[in-house]
User: Which sequence fits this backbone?
């Protein structure tokens, strides 16, 4: 069957657009339970996650997080990371998915638009989240794998202008009309992604993106309803130090703001 030409697509950023947290930092506790990282590293990831949820990441902070995580996973078996992500997604990510995002994805599907997740997080972590949402097309950061293990090298960093490049390539392959397409993101770092389509939408925008969206007359939406699909019933020993360090992180953040 010849694919329909000039059809619209809907491109979604992932973190703070579809889910209320950083997908790259979300699996720290699970990596700890599987013996891949130390408790100290797990706590560092937990604090970084909290700060991200409060203030987001600048372009420089995203690069620093990428470098830290890529260095951390060097030598890990790629299939082990994929397995952990698959087995724990309901516990780690599903409770943080915005109900509004799920409804919007369903809306685009009802209109027969292809839905694409475009994320700076690694492909192996994004893929199970996409499947949870029934999304089959992904553009994400690609890490080099040799003999089944991550080498610590980044083949493609899906951030900023690279997101727009990935979208244009997907449009070429799948016959999308970007002028009729939609893009959703929370960050000014994703301005190239938003500018690549005819209908850009700022979702939970940071201050820079909110200002740009207001100046250009773009739609601004606020998603605030992450729906827990599975209630928390299990206590883990790591909970107390995570809470303690989170309080310290929040205090430090508030003091820096003052």
Assistant:
């Amino acid at each position: 069957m010849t694919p329909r030409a000039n059809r619209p697509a809907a491109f979604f950023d992932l973190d703070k657009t579809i889910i209320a947290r950083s997908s790259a930092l979300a699996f720290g506790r699970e990596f700890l339970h599987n013996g891949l990282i130390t408790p100290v590293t797990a706590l560092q990831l937990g604090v970084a996650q909290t700060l991200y949820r409060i203030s987001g990441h600048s372009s420089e902070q995203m690069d620093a997080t990428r470098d830290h995580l890529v260095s951390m996973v060097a030598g890990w078996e790629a299939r082990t990371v994929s397995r952990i992500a698959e087995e724990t997604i309901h516990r780690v990510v599903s409770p943080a998915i915005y109900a509004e995002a799920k409804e919007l994805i369903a809306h685009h599907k009802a209109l027969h638009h292809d839905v694409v997740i475009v994320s700076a997080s690694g492909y192996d972590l994004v893929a199970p989240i996409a499947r949870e949402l029934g999304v089959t097309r992904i553009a994400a950061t690609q890490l080099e794998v040799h003999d089944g293990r991550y080498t610590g090298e980044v083949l493609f960093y899906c951030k900023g202008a690279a997101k727009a490049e990935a979208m244009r390539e997907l449009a070429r392959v799948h016959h999308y009309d970007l002028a009729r397409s939609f893009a959703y993101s929370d960050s000014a770092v994703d301005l190239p992604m938003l500018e690549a389509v005819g209908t850009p939408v700022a979702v939970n925008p940071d201050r820079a993106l909110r200002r740009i969206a207001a100046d250009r007359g773009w739609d601004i939406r606020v998603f605030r309803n992450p729906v827990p699909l599975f209630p928390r019933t299990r206590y883990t020993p790591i909970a107390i130090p995570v809470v303690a360090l989170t309080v310290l992180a929040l205090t430090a953040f508030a003091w820096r703001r003052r």
User: Anything to note?
Assistant: The two ends are 61 Å apart (CA to CA). The beta strands are 9-12, 114-122, 137-146, 149-156, 182-185, 199-203, 219-221.
